[in-house]
Write a structure and sequence with these properties.
Oligomer: single chain
Number of domains: 1
Radius of gyration: 17 Å
Structural class: alpha/beta
Number of helices: 8
Helix content: 40-55%
Shape: globular
Strand order of the largest sheet: 2-1-3-4
Distance between the termini: 38 Å
Number of strands: 4
Largest sheet: 4 strands, parallel
Amino acid sequence: MAPRQAFRPQRQRIFLGCEGESERGYGALLARLVEHHRKVHLDSVPLGGGDPLSIVEQAVIQHRRRVARGDYVYRAILLDADTLGRAPQRDDRARSLAAGQGFDLIWQEPSHEAFLLLHLADGGALRPQTSADASHALSRLWPEYRKPLPAVRLGQRIDRQAVLRARATHDGLRRLLERIDFGDAP
């Protein structure tokens, strides 16, 4: 008689739409940091750039393609806020479409580089107003940073404590971390 295999519950699938490869690398880093508990599978999905509406529309398309492999318990999109306000009607449609399709919009204000600053001990208090200011501040604090950075390279500078530091000041990140069961301890 063959030995019985231990029952392993299926991981809950999380859809994380990523505006670009930088966000995808960040999503992959989060997946590595929660790998120890094997409760969730974080599916970081590249969406491409554009305004918020085009990004949300692409997320809906990508979600429909992937849901055939199993449903997602949570859906979020990580996107820059620097294009908000250029086309207010399209912004409103993006928010409405996201809400109607069950996507949580996680705004990086104004950009991914400013979002990364929240993770750095000396960058958490900085609040750059433009993407250029955020890039400049990040390059001062992290001279080796190059866009896009894969998860392995991000992990050399951003660890669990850095993510927890950022969570304390970013509500969207806090919601995402709760859904992936990030927790406070390793």
